[in-house]
Amino acid sequence: MMSTVSAYAATSAVDPLTRTTITRRDVGPHDVAFDIHFAGICHSDIHTVRAEWGKVNYPLVPGHEIAGVVTEVGSEVSKFTVGDRVGVGCFVDSCRECEYCRAGEEQYCNNPGMVGTYNGIGRDGQPTQGGYSGAIVVDENYVLRVPDAVSLADAAPLLCAGITTYSPLRHWNAGPGTRVAVIGLGGLGHLAVKLAVALGADVTVLSQSLKKMEDGLRLGASEYHATSDRDTFKKLRGSFDLILNTVSANLDLGAYLGLLKLDGTLVELGMPEHPMEVPAPALIFGRRRLSGSLIGGIAETQEMLDFCAEHGVTPEIEVIEPEYINEAYDRVVASDVRYRFVIDTASLR
């Protein structure tokens, strides 16, 4: 029998999120049901709610950084039991048949694509609803195990911000002997710094100003530079093996590509509002690469959680009540959070 749970939903692109109730599907043979204890607020939630990234299925419950405790499992479930600490990230299904799904890169599913944790359409034909709610039901193949060493509140942001930065660091072999630059010290950027340092890389933060310099150095960066100072680009030219761009602003890509060493890579993690202008000489003279990266597959996300547990990597969070979500949205847009809001969903259970 379907269950009814409390949630916070958007009803339009301009109205505030309000408390409501939604239904969750019956627990099928391969499903895991769990009570949600914490849900992170990602800037993607805001872009989606405000229809800045395309069509939205209103009413919409956002949230794809979800952590909680299992309450029921289906008859065929083999990976989880009642009482397990679990999480769900940015997607809750994929085709499971295409070459990317079979390779464990479900986020790149092309048949026709992964099913988003919210604003997607599930196999039952119903819109998916996210983590700003009291409970959720997800196929076991898309559920992650939260290690005992990571609190549920800390686990939530790792399921998007953590894997979004961990995946490119691993793919481009960040580690001892490599120099990594992180553009922006926000929800993504602060975890990029922590993870790159834990992997053994030498890390530099590139930020518009120096106002977060103390934080950046505390998080493990060896250098912190203001990009508003044009001398920064002269001083650091040809310095980095890898640059992670965690901001969604349109940057002077020629200047930033010039910071790469021979064969260096600049990876886009944010999606700017306008098309990016890429000067060809900045790529050609230095055999540099401009790439992108999208979250991570299920196996790699579990690897990331286990890595964070082993190395003590946790996000810097501000825990809020659900009633504060709309104010939190305004503060995220204003870059007034250090560094991730996490909703305590106890009042929704």
Automatic annotation (TrEMBL):
SMART domains per the UniProt record, alphabetical: PKS_ER (SM00829)
Enzyme Commission no: 1.1.1.2
Cofactor needs: Zn(2+)
The Enoyl reductase (ER) domain, residue ranges: 12-343
InterPro entries according to UniProt: ADH-like_C, ADH-like_N, ADH_Zn_CS, CAD-like, ER, GroES-like_sf, NAD(P)-bd_dom_sf
SUPFAM superfamilies given in the database record: GroES-like (SSF50129), NAD(P)-binding Rossmann-fold domains (SSF51735)
Keyword Oxidoreductase included in the entry's annotation: yes
UniProtKB keywords: Metal-binding, Oxidoreductase, Zinc
PROSITE patterns per the UniProt record, alphabetical: ADH_ZINC
Alphabetized GO MF terms: alcohol dehydrogenase (NADP+) activity; zinc ion binding
Catalytic reaction list: a primary alcohol + NADP(+) = an aldehyde + NADPH + H(+)
Group of enzyme by EC: oxidoreductase
Family assignment from sequence similarity: Belongs to the zinc-containing alcohol dehydrogenase family.
Annotated PANTHER family: ALDEHYDE REDUCTASE (PTHR42683)
Function: Prefers aldehydes over alcohols.
Entry protein name: alcohol dehydrogenase (NADP(+))
Organism: Mycolicibacterium vanbaalenii (Mycobacterium vanbaalenii)
